[in-house]
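6-phosphogluconolactonase
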Amino acid sequence: MSEASVAVHADADLLAQAVAARLLVKMLDAQADRGEASVVLTGGRIAAAVYRAVATLPARDAVDWSRVDVWWGDERFLPAGDPDRNETQARAALLDVVPIDPARVHPMPASDGPAGNDPEAAAAWYGEELARAAGPGHGTLPHFDVLMLGVGEDGHVASIFPEHPVHYDTRPCSAVRGSPKPPAVRTTLTLPAINTAEEVWLVAGGADKARAVGMALAGAGPVQLPAAGVHGVGRTRWLLDRAAAADVPARLRSLR
Ligand SMILES: O=C1O[C@H](COP(=O)(O)O)[C@@H](O)[C@H](O)[C@H]1O
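Tokens:
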């Protein structure tokens, strides 16, 4: 398992700018090394700020967007175009602004989408989509260069909530019913799938995240605090603002 690193930025705006810059560099490096880049997006407030920042950085034009695959770590199970869908947010802030190949954008199904109004069928559909992208004989998941996660006040990541039965699902993608945060019905990558990514970035801003971030880095159990259970194969980065990092032990921080 990779060692986690922690970077702390002065405030949420600088955090979003810094994550956006890192994301562009990661995509450029992946395209230089592999000919393409594969990113897994998340939802939430800081993620939206990151996507807006990517769209405004001049270096965005150095990326060949026709060779970028976009996946999602979780989704709210709502009709297509609903403003609360993570997909809607990412499209408005970034994907509608850059010349991305629509065939390489892989949203989790909407409740009026290809799997119908059935979250279990939607999760299975996404699992098949992932396996198709992996290619025959390459397992159930494609390569992910970077997978971004927000962190909930309760320590949830993607739509994996504390003590939820989804912790015991070993399929790549799972339906989530009874989410404590609305909407109640969601779909999510599971921890085994998330932890196949080359790099996992946990991005959190604001004082309301400090307790969860501090506990995760202090070694809490993943069922009680899902953020404690994620790690990239090559790298795990915690990208925080000062308020979210308030409870992080000083020895783990590198202040920016
Ligand atoms: O519901 C969700 O919440 C988390 C965190 O969102 P935030 O607004 O507190 O930053 C997000 O990472 C996840 O993708 C989303 O579905």
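The pocket of LXAUTJHC is lined by residues 42-46, 74, 76, 86, 149-150, 152, 158-159, 181 (CB under 6 Å).
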